[in-house]
Amino acid sequence: MQRLSGKYVTICVITALVLALAPAAVTSAAASTTAMFKDEAFPSIINLPNGHQPEGMAIGRGTTFYAGSLANGSIYRGDLRTGTGSILVPPAAGRALTGLFVDERHNYLFASGSTSGQGFVFDASTGAALATYQLAITTSTFINDVVVTRDAAYFTDSSQPFIYKVPLGHKGELPDQSAVERIRLSGDFVFVPGAFNANGIEATPDGKWLIIVSTVRGELYRVDPRTGHSTLVDLGGASVSFGDGLRLRGRTLYVVRNQLNQIDAVRLARDWASGTVVNTLTNPNLDVPTTIGFFGSSLYAVNARFSTPPTPDTTYTIVRVARVP
C-alpha cells in the first residue's frame, strides 16, 4: 500500500509539473506557428522576370514557389518571404510550359507541355531534367495542367477528350514511355471540338477521384482516374465559366476564373459530386490569373496577362490574393 501511495504521489508531482509547463509549451508552439505563417508580412506582389509569360505556378517546400514560362520553357524559382529568385530550369528551344505540380515526397517538379503534347519531370532542387513523356498522339493537343497522387501523375488535354496517366513506382520511380496511359473521358463529360475543354485538375486527398474544370462549358467534373468516367458536379445552377487552375483545401475547391479576375470557393459535398459557391475572391492586382497555390492561410495567384501583348519587356507578377480559412 505504501508503494502504491508513493507511486501515486510521484505521478501527481509529475502531472503538476507537466500542467505547469504546458501553457508555456503551448504558447511557445502557437507563437512558432504564428511566426511561421505570419505571411501577411510577406510581399503582396512578387515580380517575375520581364517577358517570362507565366501560366503555371506551384508552391513547394517551405516558402519556395515555381513559375513556368510559355515563352521559352524555363522555370523560375523564388521565395515567397523575400520575393526574390532566379531561373531554376533553363530555357529550351520549342518548349512552352503550362501547369506545374510539386511532388514533395520525391522532390519532383512536374510540368505540362502545352502544344507539344508532352509532360516533363524536373528535380525540384537542382532543376535537372529527369524525364520527358509524349502524352498525346495527335498534333491537335494542349497539355494544360497536372496533379500528382500517391501513385501517379495525371495531365489534362484541353484539345482532346483524354487525361493522361504517368504511374509512379513504389518508391516514386519514374517509368519509361511505355507506361503512359491515355484515358478517355466519358460519362457526363462534354467535349466541344475546337474549344478549350478540360483545364485545371485536382485530386481528392485519398486519390479516389480527380476533379477537372471545363473552361468552355464552365463545369466541374468528378472523374474516376481508373476509367475516365465523369460525373457532372451539381453546382445548383452556378457556372465556373473561364475556369482555369484548381486547388483543393479540405473540401473547398478554389477555382480560378481567369478572364473574370476572380477565384471562386466551392464547398463540395462528401461524395465530391455536388457543391455550392460560398465565396468569390478578388484583388485589384489580378490580371488574368491562371493558377494558384497556398502558403499558410494565404492564397497566391500568378498573372498570365493574356489580354496584354507579350514582349520581352512585359512585366509579370504573382499576387497574394487573400487570406483563406
Mind explaining what this structure looks like?
The protein is mainly β. It has a single domain, classed as 6 Propeller (Neuraminidase), CATH 2.120.10.30. 11% of the residues lie in helices and 43% in strands. The strands form six sheets. A five-stranded mixed beta sheet has the order 14-18-17-16-15, with no helix packed on it. Strands 1-25-24-23 form a four-stranded antiparallel beta sheet, with no helix packed on it. Strands 2-3-4-5 form a four-stranded antiparallel beta sheet, with no helix packed on it. A hairpin with a 5-residue loop joins strand 4 and strand 5. The longest helix is centred in the first third of the chain and has 35 residues. It is globular.
How many domains would you count in the coordinates?
1
**Second CATH tier, the architecture:** 6 Propeller
- Let me know the average pLDDT: 90
- As laid out across the biggest beta sheet, the strand order is 14-18-17-16-15
> Judging from the principal axes of the Cα atoms, what is the shape?
globular
